[in-house]
Design a protein that fits this description.
The chain contains no helices and two strands. By secondary structure, the protein is mostly loops.
């Protein structure tokens, strides 16, 4: 799957998408590459599936889904 055309966090992410990095209190260090551990959950369901039963992540939670809520 070509993910370059899909939504990325920071662009048009869903307001219900959560990531464990939100709870880390550390300043961003530009000398350290960003990790992508894929630890996401949906605020509406509390797990890795959205209300529509589909998997959630920074690519899949986009305006094409009915449960999507813009920031």
């Amino acid at each position: 799957m070509n993910r370059t055309v899909l939504t990325v966090i920071g662009q048009q992410r869903c307001d219900f998408l959560r990531w464990k990095g939100l709870y880390i209190e550390a300043e961003w260090d530009p000398t350290i590459p960003r990790g992508d551990d894929k630890s996401f959950w949906c605020l509406q369901t509390g797990n890795c599936l959205g209300p529509d039963g589909k998997i959630i992540d920074k690519y899949e939670c986009n305006p094409a889904r009915g449960c999507y809520k813009p920031l």
